[in-house]
């Protein structure tokens, strides 16, 4: 039986009527730019994230970029983040004109190692972008304390972590900015590209709202130079429908993760150190990815491919080793935990509609690979 990494068709089948009706409503109105659907979606996502305000934008990438722009971060400034993330976490810093400064990850959680941040802070440092990778929040209290001490802005990259929680706080609600992506493969996915910035700051909300619309509050009068970073009404309508299902989907992902943990333990693979299951530190991990570490990972990938089991390597090349960032002067060995993770980690299907039989098949196929070699 073929098992996909993610089954959006299965998800759509369960909510088709509601999605189709919401989309039809937008078509009937022919109001595609801004309007009630966007405002409604912003209110719902802000409330879901324990934030006062939200500004819908065109993607998670643009959420990061517009947050940096709202702080006037650019040439001569430094922004601290990790090299083990999706490209956009760092690409947005460079596009804003600033210099990314890397801090290695904690090898257990894949989030920023909070003990190595302070030594990287200089008088040019303006912000920290903690990435809540795979659905688990970074260890925020020490990061907030450092930001307070050094007068830095926190922009949470919560693209993979909507609804995740730690110490009673939701992802996106702790920093000055929380950035979400509604890319279709995220836990709350649109029908294309979309994103949002959440914040508790009224002044920042006004600036973000202006910047996403060419820096203009009144049409054809521009206070700032922004861009076209607007959230489409169609995407907002889809996201609003899906948001009401998100807690159910999250619960299913969490249950699938626990079942994998159990199956891997029972299989002996963990005991024999062939597979390492994910470590949960934060109080609410939403499992955007269930990421194992696997011995002889690349050969295992090949075996899974042959057996038609969906999987993905997030991410094969840490960002400090990307060609386009070679000018930063980093090299192999500079961030050993990120480099090792890039060689060892492997994401397995954990989507909500997955069955226990499918999960058993994933684990038994992995066990077969190690038994045969
Ligand atoms: C997906 C993602 C982004 C970018 O979001 P897009 O909507 O694809 O632009 C940024 N950061 C992280 C960690 C992501 O996973």
Q: State the fourth-level CATH superfamily of the largest domain.
A: Type I PLP-dependent aspartate aminotransferase-like (Major domain)
Report the total helices: 11
Note poorly predicted spans: none
Distance between the termini: 23 Å
Shape: globular
Mean pLDDT across all residues, rounded? 97
Assign a percent range to the helix content. Answer: 25-40%
**CATH fold-type name of the largest domain:** Aspartate Aminotransferase, domain 2
Give the count of structural domains: 2
For the structure shown, list the relevant keywords.
373 residues, alpha/beta, Aspartate Aminotransferase, domain 2, Aspartate Aminotransferase, domain 1, three-stranded antiparallel sheet, 11 helices, binds pyridoxal-5'-phosphate
Topology of this protein?
Elements: H1 8-29, H2 36-48, E1 53-57, H3 60-70, E2 78-81, H4 88-95, E3 99-102, E4 125-128, H5 140-150, E5 153-157, E6 165-166, E7 169-170, E8 177-181, E9 195-199, H6 202-211, E10 216-218, E11 221-222, H7 233-243, H8 246-267, E12 275-276, E13 290-294, H9 297-306, H10 336-344, E14 345-348, H11 356-372
Parallel strand pairs: 2-3, 2-4, 4-5, 5-8
Antiparallel strand pairs: 1-9, 6-7, 8-9, 10-11, 12-13, 13-14
Helix pairs in contact: 1-7, 2-7, 3-4, 3-6, 8-11
């Amino acid at each position: 039986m073929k098992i996909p990494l993610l089954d959006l068709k299965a998800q759509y089948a369960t909510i088709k009527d509601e999605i189709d009706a919401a989309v039809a409503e937008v078509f009937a109105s022919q109001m595609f730019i801004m309007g009630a659907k966007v405002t409604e979606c912003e209110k719902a996502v802000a409330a879901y994230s324990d934030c006062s305000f939200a500004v819908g934008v065109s993607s998670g990438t643009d959420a990061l970029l517009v947050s940096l722009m709202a702080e006037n971060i650019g040439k001569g400034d430094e922004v601290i983040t990790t090299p083990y993330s999706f490209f956009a976490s760092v690409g947005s810093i460079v596009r804003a004109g600033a210099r990314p400064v890397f801090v290695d990850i904690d090898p257990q959680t894949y989030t920023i190692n909070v003990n190595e941040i302070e030594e990287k802070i200089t008088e040019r440092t303006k912000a920290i972008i903690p990435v809540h990778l795979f659905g688990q929040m970074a260890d925020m209290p020490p990061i907030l304390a450092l930001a307070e001490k050094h007068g830095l802005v926190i922009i949470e990259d919560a693209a993979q972590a909507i609804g995740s929680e730690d110490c009673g706080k939701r992802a996106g609600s702790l920093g000055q900015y929380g950035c979400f992506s509604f890319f279709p493969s995220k836990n709350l996915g649109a029908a294309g590209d979309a994103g949002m910035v959440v914040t508790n700051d009224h002044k920042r909300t006004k600036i973000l709202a202006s910047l996403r619309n060419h820096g203009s509050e009144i049409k054809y009068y521009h206070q700032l130079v922004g861009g076209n970073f607007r959230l489409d009404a169609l995407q907002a309508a889809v996201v609003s429908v899906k948001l009401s299902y998100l807690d159910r989907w999250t619960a299913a992902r969490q249950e699938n993760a626990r079942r994998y943990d159990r199956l891997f333990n029972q299989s002996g693979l963990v005991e024999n150190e062939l597979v390492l299951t994910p470590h949960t530190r934060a109080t609410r991990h939403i499992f955007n990815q269930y990421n194992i570490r696997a011995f002889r990972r690349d050969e295992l990938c090949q075996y899974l491919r042959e057996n038609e089991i969906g999987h993905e390597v997030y991410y094969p090349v840490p960002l400090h080793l990307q060609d386009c960032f070679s000018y930063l002067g980093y090299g192999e060995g500079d961030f050993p935990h990120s480099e090792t993770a890039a060689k060892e980690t492997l994401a397995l299907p954990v989507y909500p509609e997955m069955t226990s039989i499918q999960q058993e098949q994933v684990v038994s196929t992995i066990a077969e690979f190690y038994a045969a070699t």
